[in-house]
Amino acid sequence: MTAAADPKAKAAQRYPSLRDFYNADPARLSSRERDVGLWWRERADGPLHRAAWIADTGELYLARLGPREEGGGGVEVLARVADAERLERMLGGWRERCGEPGSLQWLRRRSAVSVLPVRPRPRWAQPEAPAGAVA
């Protein structure tokens, strides 16, 4: 079953808060992050969103800024991108778009066409087991 066909996978793509998002996967807590813009918006007067990519999970996520009572705080995983080079190709020109009215739709379209499964790390990149450990 593909992630798109799995209702659980679809539901797991949204989180009520940044705290819930990070706590749902320990790999997110220790990973490097790459900022992908702080002012994504639908309309000139619309709410702002921050986008970032988490290296260890490959997740490109969007966090709505602002007070919770105004809809802020929620997190949405837009895509899984295997590496930083693919991310840059996928979002080429994002710096020029971010902050403009309609930029959020642009980001969603660009991330939707390039959703890729995250490849597991090669065996040589895995941490070594302690001496005497059974694999």
Please tag this protein with its features:
135 residues, alpha+beta, 5 strands, 17% strand, disordered N terminus
Q: What do you see in this structure?
A:
- This protein has 135 residues and is an alpha+beta fold.
- It has one domain (7-112).
- The chain has helices at 7-11, 18-23, 26-30, 84-90, 94-97, 103-112, and strands at 14-15, 33-35, 49-54, 59-64, 75-80.
- It has a five-stranded antiparallel beta sheet.
- The model is unreliable at 1-12 and 116-130 (pLDDT under 50).
Strand order across the biggest sheet?
1-5-4-3-2
Share of residues in helices: 25-40%
Uncertain runs are: 1-12, 116-130
Number-wise, the strands total 5
Total helices: the number is 6
Show the helix and strand layout.
Elements: H1 7-11, E1 14-15, H2 18-23, H3 26-30, E2 33-35, E3 49-54, E4 59-64, E5 75-80, H4 84-90, H5 94-97, H6 103-112
Antiparallel strand pairs: 1-5, 2-3, 3-4, 4-5
Task: Give a quick precis of the structure.
By secondary structure, the protein is α+β, with helices and mostly antiparallel strands.
